[in-house]
Amino acid sequence: MSSHAQIAQSADVSLNAAVGANTRVWHLAQIREGATVGRESIIGRGAYVGSGVRIGDRCKIQNFALVYEPATLEDGVFVGPGAVLTNDVHPRAINQDGSLKSASDWEATGVTIKRGAAIGARAVCVAPVTIGEWATVAAGAVVTRDVPAFALVAGVPARRIGWVGPAGRKLEQRDDRFVCPVTGDEFIENEGALARA
Asked: What residues in the chain have per-residue pLDDT under 50?
């Protein structure tokens, strides 16, 4: 654990977790053994980071978000309040014979979130899914399949309703281009994928 991280006294951070410099871990947050959190990140109040989870630099995990192992979050990822990244494809508390399931009775499957992507409040990402670079998952959405880079998805199950740029704003279609209303950056759509023009 880095001595340069700011960790609230009430937070539960394993001695076997790595927390990067200038990262802030707030009240009642938990970071489990083997987890790594990069530099300049924020782990909000009551957030949970599971064993072996990898979180990059300058990420924000908001209050009460649950990031279950073995999730991987690249640099600059935002996970909104109360969002959940699941890890069990076939969840059950007990085996067929009625015995309580143990860690050896299932295989954890993680969610991957690429650089700059954002997950809205109370959204659920059902493993195994990958959220592409700069994509945005709307609040309350349930993601059950991969989300392409720059996609804006919403609903249950989540469907693409537009495109977003790195500024986080919905891109405006102008002829054959999609344009960011903030930066003026232009993108071209080709076969369900978006690329810079």
From this structure: none
Reported as a single tens digit per residue, the pLDDT across 71-93 is 999 999 999 999 999 999 989 99
Q: Which among 80, 39, 35, 70 is positioned nearest to 56, based on CA atoms?
A: 39
Let me know: does 145 contact 130? Beta carbons within 8 Å.
no
Supply φ then ψ for residue 103, to 5 degrees.
-60, -30
Structure-derived torsion over alpha carbons of residues 99, 101, 105, 108, reported in degrees to the nearest 10: 170
Domains of the chain as residue ranges with CATH? 6-164 (2.160.10.10)
Q: What is d(CA 49, CA 105) in angstroms, rounded to the nearest whole number?
A: 22
> CA–CA separation, 50 vs 66, rounded Å?
8
Residues 6+ apart with CB under 8 A from 174: none
What was the pLDDT predicted at 72?
98
CB 194 within 8 A of CB 151: yes
